[in-house]
Amino acid sequence: MKKILKRASSVCAAVVCAASLTVSGAVIVAADSEIDETVKAQLVATAEGLTEAIIPMSDEEIANYLTSDDDFTVQAMTSWNSSKDEVGEYVALGETEVEFDDDEYSVTVSVDFETYDADFVYMFSSDGVPATMSVDVQYPMSETMKRAGLNTVMGIGIVFIMLVFLSFVISLFRFIPGLVEGKKKEEPKAPAAPVPAPVAAPAAEEVVDDTELIAVIAAAIAAAEGTTTDGFVVRSIRKVNRRKW
């Protein structure tokens, strides 16, 4: 704040210093809840002096003040820097209003500019020290309606775009089952278990059906038994594997 006050005239600087000293020791509010006229005059002089010091600052000066360690200075420069190109050239100061609420003073300095008028709103603590400052550009009704219309159109447009995007995303859901099935088909199948080879059934014992051989064997058996071939019948002949010793 001290850096900004250096831009004011010597008279305004003296008024600001006197205002800070006087306000801190003065009675803030009278019994009827009205602001003391002396305090009000000092607050008005301080706010108007700050306003007249801030408005003519160049871009380079504003950039230098933005690096200040004082919170009020940085906030004031930021608010004015964002509005100065929009309001146009400075014309004159208008009326200044002072209000007191919650142990704070609100001082609004109306300023006339070529393009749009603006209100410099200062918040002072109960001891008269400026805490915050903001610039409230006063747009005409036509400009306000225009901005409101643009905001409405932009809001509707964004909603419409989001609905179209959601519809597109939902329409892609029908391709999901096909993609899943295709992925399953592409997955390599596990090799089938080898089918065990059929075990060959044991070959049926060869039955010798030779009439002459049967007759010879039957005669040999009958001779060995001391009987005739009428007592038995040879039905089949099988080879017997004998173990070799």
Strand order of the largest sheet: 1-2-3-4
How many runs of DSSP E, i.e. beta strands?
Answer: 4
> According to CATH, what is the topology of the largest domain?
Nuclear Transport Factor 2, Chain: A
Radius of gyration: 57 Å
Instruction: Kindly give the count of domains.
Output: 2
Text of the CATH class of the largest domain: Alpha Beta
The secondary structure category is alpha+beta
Please write the string of helix (H) and strand (E) elements.
HHHHHHEEEEHHH
**What is the mean predicted local confidence, pLDDT?**
76
Structure commentary:
By secondary structure, the chain is α+β, with helices and mostly antiparallel strands. The protein has two domains: 141 residues, Nuclear Transport Factor 2, Chain: A (Roll); 34 residues, no CATH class. 48% of the residues lie in helices and 16% in strands. It is built from nine helices and four strands. A four-stranded antiparallel sheet has the order 1-2-3-4. Strand 1 and strand 2 form a beta hairpin. About 13% of the residues have low confidence.
